[in-house]
Amino acid sequence: MDLTDIKAAARKAAFIRRKSAFEGVGPGQSAHLSEVLAGYRGVPVAAYMPIRTEINPLPAMAEAAAHGPVGVPVIQGEGLPLEFSRWEPDMAMRSGPFGAQVPEVDDYFDPEIVIVPLVAFDSDGGRLGYGGGFYDRTLERLRARRATLAIGFAFDAQEAESLPLETTDQPLDMIVTESGVRSFRR
């Protein structure tokens, strides 16, 4: 089995765990994320519009937007880093690639904090995404410009004992779940 097959199997198992967690968790999923972001009031942050069974960051995003810029990812094309367009609660949105909503009018900026969706994570801050490499390329680009905090946001059930990672996979600085926060020293 090659690395592509190993990653596909890890994603499949993680999607099953995530779906189960999504179905079993009620409101308050983003309470810990709100607490973390409260410590960075006014710092430009990017998060994501949840799709399918992703944990919902919208309440924390709305709180952060009251204090500073918040953006959501806009895919520019295959093999390219993401751009982040300014988002505000109740603004006009349109459908973007993969079914995620993006602002009707783009207003791009570079965030200093990126809330990263994921399929699975490990105890060392490793992240398994959807396989397109968008966040890895984006974090590499942002981190080359200045310190950028990457915060994975996931359900506890998405933790894997180990992940098939590559040298191009960008590590998380922190993981926030419905039950708590873990930081990783880099």
From TrEMBL:
Keyword ATP-binding on entry: yes
Top-level taxon of the source organism: Bacteria
GO BP annotations, alphabetical order: folic acid-containing compound biosynthetic process; tetrahydrofolate interconversion
Keywords assigned: ATP-binding, Ligase, Magnesium, Metal-binding, Nucleotide-binding
Organism phylogeny: Bacteria, Pseudomonadati, Pseudomonadota, Alphaproteobacteria, Rhodobacterales
Protein name: 5-formyltetrahydrofolate cyclo-ligase
PANTHER family per the UniProt record, alphabetical: 5-FORMYLTETRAHYDROFOLATE CYCLO-LIGASE, ATPASE INHIBITOR/5-FORMYLTETRAHYDROFOLATE CYCLO-LIGASE
Reaction equations catalysed: (6S)-5-formyl-5,6,7,8-tetrahydrofolate + ATP = (6R)-5,10-methenyltetrahydrofolate + ADP + phosphate
Family: Belongs to the 5-formyltetrahydrofolate cyclo-ligase family.
Source organism: Shimia thalassica
Molecular function GO terms recorded: 5-formyltetrahydrofolate cyclo-ligase activity; ATP binding; metal ion binding
EC number: 6.3.3.2
Cofactor: Mg(2+)
Alphabetized InterPro entries for the sequence: FTHF_cligase, FTHF_cligase-like_sf, NagB/RpiA_transferase-like
EC class (word): ligase
